[in-house]
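Team,

Forwarding the record for the chain on the shared tracking sheet. I've put the sequence and predicted structure together so nobody has to dig through attachments.
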Amino acid sequence: MSKTKIVILGAGYGGLRTLKGLQKKHLDVEITLVNKNDYHYEATYLHEVASGAKEPEQISFQIKDVVDPKQTTFIQDTVIQVNKDEKTVNLEKNGTISFDYLVFALGFESESFGIPGVEEFGLPMVTIDSAVTIREHMHQQFAAYQESQDDSLLSIVVCGAGFTSIEYLGELTQQLPKLAKKYNLPVEKIQLTCIEAMPTLLPMFADKLANYGIQKLKDRGVQFIVGTPIKEITQDTVIYEENEELKSIKAKTIVWTTGVKGSSVVGQSGFEERRGRVMVESDLTAPGYSEIFVIGDCSAVMDPESNRPYPTTAQIALKQADGVVTNLVAKLNDRPIVPFTFKSQGSVCSIGNNEAIGEVLGANLKGYPASVMKKIIEDKSLSQTGGLKIMFNKGRFDLYH
């Protein structure tokens, strides 16, 4: 009799944590992990690569270092489509593979919201490659300034003011003095602008914390334009609406971080979804498909307190992965499933390497203590996805810098 086939799509926080959990169980099953890259990257640190503070290898590690070849087959390939009823997955290079149980954890993509010019001219920050593209593009503009003296080359507009945007601005403001020196630039002419459609900034934090973080960035020269939806992007211009009037700002570097959606494979596979997210059942399976688990950025789990889906964070993805392992083992042994529950432990938003704001276990933190907590949280995440060896090799222990 053939072994039960478990296929995991994606090696992000949820997928890799699921793999580690299943391997620890030493089940009599065939496990296959599919990921388009041969590495896992810490998505919460993409802003450091984009700003130039870190190199890609500093926020990533090889998947082979987590895979137990005695239990798991790793396939480096791109997922094209999941055939739910046939229980198969179409891959770009390796054809079709079959499954008995599937863990769909393909992660997120940039969301354009249908705004003209975003796909052509906005620079998203969703992968290591896209973060490197932002950094290299910015450096190219700075290098060209000496010859043209075009001030728009020194103008950077960040579209959106979510976590990624704020953390990128925080890190970038700390890198700019070095960049100005490297390219012999007039640092006072470098213009950083953040445009946000919502009327408030960092609404997930208490006003005192949010105000602290935003004021720090303002003190470093960031200009915030709030309550102004972006209407269009051109090659060197961001057009936005303020008080029912269209206005524009020139910039050669336009970073698009207004939001993300789940993988487009969700819709291509015929799942019932909204913005690439499936509203999952209590055991984290797709409605009508008890053998297909959907977790991470491709899933939506309702928060009973707010009556809205929980934000898709690394924290909930890791917790979902543990839930998948528990319920997969239950299904394999014909035992009752355990409904997924989640209680956020809080969140921390960095505004540079040594400053942050956060709310952790009910306590409000700001400044240096918050930045230490941020690094502790990230190191814990590394241990959960990669293990202690990887955590000690790749972890954040620069607590005094």
